[in-house]
Amino acid sequence: MTTTEPPLTEAAPGPAQTCPVMHGTQPAAAGRDLLNYPFSGAVPLDPPVEWEQVREQCPVVAVRLPSGDEAHLVTRYEEARALLADPRFTRQIPVNAESRIGASEDGGVFSRQATSGLKIFEGEGHLRWRRLMAKAFTIKRVESMRPRIQALADELVDKMVAAGPRADIARDIGAILPVRVIGDLLGVPTEDLHRFATWSDAILTLTRHSKAEVDAARQDFGIYLAKLIEAKRAEPGDDLLSELINITDSEDGRLDMVELIVTAMAILVAGHETTANMIGKMTAMLLADRSRFETVVADPSIVPSAVDEVLRFDTNPSIGVPRYVSEDIAVGGAEIGAGSTVIVSPAIANRDPRRFPEPERMDLRRTNNQHLSFGAGPHFCLGQPLARAELQVVLGTLARRLPTLRLAIDRRELRVKQGLIVVGFEEVPVEW
After folding, report:
1. Runs of H (alpha helix) within 235-383
2. pLDDT per residue as tens digits for the range 202-261
3. Stretch 390-417: mean pLDDT, rounded?
4. Residue 234: its pLDDT value, please?
5. Rounded CA separation 66/78 (Å)
6. Is residue 3 part of a domain?
7. Is 208 contained in some domain?
8. The domain containing residue 55 runs over which residues?
9. How many domains does the chain divide into?
10. What is the reported pLDDT for 11?
């Protein structure tokens, strides 16, 4: 099955029009009594009922963000994929942007303060940045890291077994393996890695932290990275940060110091936070119905496709992909005005029956699984080969080393982290 990206047509001037938003089975008038977004399910591993309602009702709906501002939510696969590839939907927040994302005064990580003046987010500057970063996350480089990832996974499982027969996957593997891997990649001293959890939580806040706390985290993180960069400039190591410093110092159009700091910060935060949460969610999803995990135990060759299906099936994703409209346009019949905030929800689009046969069934052997969990278009996640490798190694190791693994609590008792852009479970208790 192949997919095509429908063209996004120009909108006639005038106010934005979106489909009515449903409450239960009753539609409300557009722009009134909006649903609060992100949606939350009654049971952590079940999709919120609103996902199917809004997706089947129309491809774009109006929602209210944690900030209290309104945005347009894109819910269907074709429209979402097309939007992510369209240059009129920008990450760079325009001066006339209407809405903030987070509840802090400036909107949090998706604020103008966080992106202002940085050429690496859009246009030719972003293309140049991606070419530079592509050298860091090649398939060859990631595959060369697998033995290290495997050794670390075995080390962590050894510790679990020694302390068992009960553990917390979120704490004992998720909170450790990704940050160690990304720390090794960048060349961050192991003894400093514990700082990143506090900084990441503040930077990725929706409602949990104030603007003052976010600003302090950004400042402290930036100061730390500036010192680390200068230390590596004086004494380079065999690591990615030293390599980036060398490349940017020796080639035309190099990154300036602020852009280098932001790049390192983005790699450290995105490179460990999302995967850390996904390790716990993946384990919970597969153990909530043990036949899923047993399928992997019986046939380890399906680990790669199982990981991608878990990514598609995630019911506790991030807030989505915010974009800002640079001109009046129409998406799926909805007119959206310049300056509007648009949120693409990969998780909702990943269950679109127009693209995925039997989307509500977890098929660990699913083929042509072109989910949008890593985005699409010019901002497609460059770190996805590393994330996939870590998840594959963890799943394969658990299936091989702990074939009797099971959830130690009822799936309904899983507690979702609150107030952050990146979502995971507080704990994933298991036993064997």
Report:
1. 240-250, 257-288, 290-298, 303-313, 346-349
2. 887 766 777 788 888 889 999 999 999 999 999 999 888 898 888 766 655 567 788 888
3. 97
4. 92
5. 26
6. no
7. yes
8. 21-431
9. 1
10. 37
